Amino acid sequence: MAGIDFSQLSHTPCYICEEALLEKNLQLLNRVQEESGAKVILALKGFAMWSTFDLVGNYLQGCTASGLHEAKLAREKMNKEVHTYSPAFKEDEIDEIARISDDIVFNSPSQFHRYYERVKAINPSISVSLRVNPEYSSSPVDMYNPCGIYSRLGTTKVNFDESLLGKLDGLNFHALCEQNVDALEGVLEAFEAKFGSYIEGMKYVNFGGGHHITRSDYDVDRLITVIKAFRARHNNITVYLEPGEAVGWQTGPLVASVLDIIHNGMDIAILDTSAEAHMPDTLAMPYRAAIRGAGESGEKAHTYRLGGNTCLAGDIMGDYSFDTPLNVGDKIIFEDQIHYTFVKNTTFNGVKLPSLAIWTKEGKLEMIHEFGYEDYKNRLS
Ligand SMILES: *Cc1c(COP(=O)(O)O)cnc(C)c1O
Predict the structure, then answer these.
(1) H helices within the chain, ranges in order?
(2) Helix/strand/coil for 334
(3) Is ligand 1 within 6 A of the CB of residue 352?
(4) Tell me, what's the pLDDT at 142?
(5) 307 has which bridge partners?
(6) Is the CB of 242 under 6 A from ligand 1?
(7) Structural domains counted in the chain
(8) Which of 70, 146, 162, 254 is most exposed, with the fewest beta carbons within 10 Å of its own?
(9) What is the pLDDT of residue 139?
(10) Among the three residues 191, 218, 248, which one is the final residue of a domain in this structure?
(11) Mean pLDDT value of segment 6-16
(12) What is the pLDDT of residues 211-269, one digit of tens each?
């Protein structure tokens, strides 16, 4: 597969989604669907480049949304199944959500009681689910652990209201983050121990996201076995998976340029992007983004600290080494910056949002969207 021809890129910073790599992920997810019988929907929270949704919709069954705006985007741009969950729905949004969703997922019995009749009156064919908290997680980071202590996400067994049974079409859980199938097996065991007796009578169980299915070491065959066994135990019930990250995983870079090189105890390169505004998980998770052709600090001949073009002292990507000295104008290619990046971007400090582009299967760089001053101004007043 020929990689991106960066000479076609007229400016930086820019995210470039590689269509062929996205399709490769979708094909693997489709294999899971075909061999396990599960349905896979895209979690918009992690990847919402809607210019690719025709392609995504060729393979996946629809989208999972976390509230009105994502639900609208799912309906407008993919128009397949729309599943909408929110930690708490709002009075002034629930009617529209009911109209455009195929499945609504309540977080608590109190939300269910508040809205169930109203939602059904607006959309009699809507499915209704409850998100439960299996209180089991091996999520590596507290920030991304939906089953941590005092979690607000999902209903625990002691807070389950059995009067809902008979009205519920499904149960949802979401307990994983960037994990392999062994973690899912642990969650499933806890889920079935706590909620297993409620599954009979449900139309589906939704296993949430956090399945890192497209990562090279993910045990896809084992996942298929686990899903098939679950379905066999429960009268061939429909299973949903709703990955976000696994869809956008390793589908393209964020390309930035060196604006200046300065020295203060070490060599420092200032880039036309920002860790804080454009690669937020590198600071929040945190993790170190790989850079094409670069090594760890000190590994290659020329080490630089790479920093963003904001006034936040901590806006730093890390220390990286290169074979040759960096020069102003050099491109820096941050790998794997398509998931959980532009969906979280901010216009902090007025820095320009990176453009969005697609590297097509035909080997053409298609500039999809450029941002400017208006995007900054319109968020303020
Ligand atoms: C975040 C989230 C997902 C997607 O998680 P990934 O880690 O991106 O796969 C799915 N479902 C729910 C309810 C979520 O909150």
Answers:
(1) 19-36, 53-59, 68-77, 94-100, 109-122, 181-199, 220-233, 245-248, 275-278, 280-284, 373-377
(2) strand
(3) no
(4) 81
(5) 270, 316
(6) yes
(7) 2
(8) 162
(9) 76
(10) 248
(11) 97
(12) 999 999 999 999 999 999 999 999 999 999 999 999 999 999 999 999 999 999 999 99
Decide: 243 in ligand 1 pocket, CB within 6 A: yes
Beta strand segments in the chain, E: 14-18, 39-40, 42-43, 62-65, 81-85, 103-106, 127-131, 170-172, 204-206, 238-241, 254-263, 267-271, 302-307, 316-322, 331-334, 355-359, 365-369
**What pLDDT, in 10s, does the model give residues 175-217?**
999 999 999 999 999 999 999 999 999 999 999 999 999 999 9
d(CA 347, CA 215): 31
For the cut 70, the answer to whether the pLDDT of residue 331 exceeds it is: yes
Atom of ligand 1 nearest to the CA of 243: 9
Give, in order, the Cα–Cα distances in Å from 31 to each of 15, 55, 83.
28, 16, 22
pLDDT of residue 55: 98
Rounded Cα–Cα distance for residues 173 and 215 (Å):
22
Residues 135 and 273 both lie in one domain? no
pLDDT at residue number 237: 98
In a domain, 167, yes or no: yes
Q: Which of 199, 220, 248 is the last residue of a domain?
A: 248
pTM surpassing 0.90? yes
Ligand 1 in contact with 64 (CB < 6 A)?
yes
Closest C-alpha to 278, from 203, 217, 334, 199: 334
Share of the chain above pLDDT 90, in %: 96
Give a yes or no: residue 243 inside a domain: yes
1 domain residue, yes or no: no
Domain of 212 in residue numbering reads as: 19-248
Same domain (yes/no): 224, 141 = yes
User: Whose Cα sits closest to atom 10 in ligand 1?
Assistant: 209
Is the domain of 35 the same as that of 160? Answer: yes
Question: Of 266, 273, 250, which Cα lies nearest the Cα of 337?
Answer: 250
- CATH code, domain carrying 157: 3.20.20.10
Confidence of residue 143 (pLDDT cuts 50, 70, 90): confident
The token pair at 275 is: 């860790």
- The answer to whether the Cα torsion of 312, 317, 319, 323 is positive or negative is negative
* CB 206 less than 6 A from any atom of ligand 1: no
Q: State the closest ligand 1 atom to the C-alpha of 46, by its place in the atom list counted from 1.
A: 8
Total residue count of the chain as it appears in this document:
381
